[in-house]
Amino acid sequence: MYMKTKQFLAVGALAVLLALPLWSAENWVRYVAQPGGGQVKVEGTSTLHDWSVESKLIGGYIEIDSSFNLDKPQPGKVNARVAVLIPVRQLKSDKTAMDTVMYDSMKEKDHRRIDYRLTEMSLKEAPKASDAPFVFDTKGELIVAGVTNKVQIPVTMVRVGADKLKFTGSIPVKMTSFGIQPPTKLGVFSTGDDVKLSFEWLTAKKEEATK
Length: 211
Known about the structure:
This protein is of the alpha+beta class.
């Protein structure tokens, strides 16, 4: 009887230990994108001049495991989930003709948005002061024109007040890596393959729904 009870307790303890990582991973703190609080910019070159397009609409959210203490952060892997979306039609220059060419090149009729999903996030080092930025190394998947590429983006985060987080970062990409042919026009100009994507993204903590 004693041996059976001991075995039962051991099995029960093991089950609890195995469940702990799953339980902790479910305690997410969600921050949602704020309307008008973000900006994404794409910059490139052409044989005529440099160009850029911008959008102030960045949707999505970030969820961070509650075990990550913003007041006393520890360097290392951060358990987080991120989903970002940018409507292609919200990317605009000051030239309507250029925007039309861009939407066609990005196959906007079939792929109406740019998506990003986080796969890994690590804090490089703890901030040295309460108002100092957090610096993360991130890995994720960027989906443009229906093509998914793995990307690595250094991301900086600052706290804005008590319940907001602002993220900034940039990454160089090639149009052709997403199946996009750099636009040309009858030999008059051609667009470079390399572009720079940069962003500012403001999120606010989502309060728990009251019962």
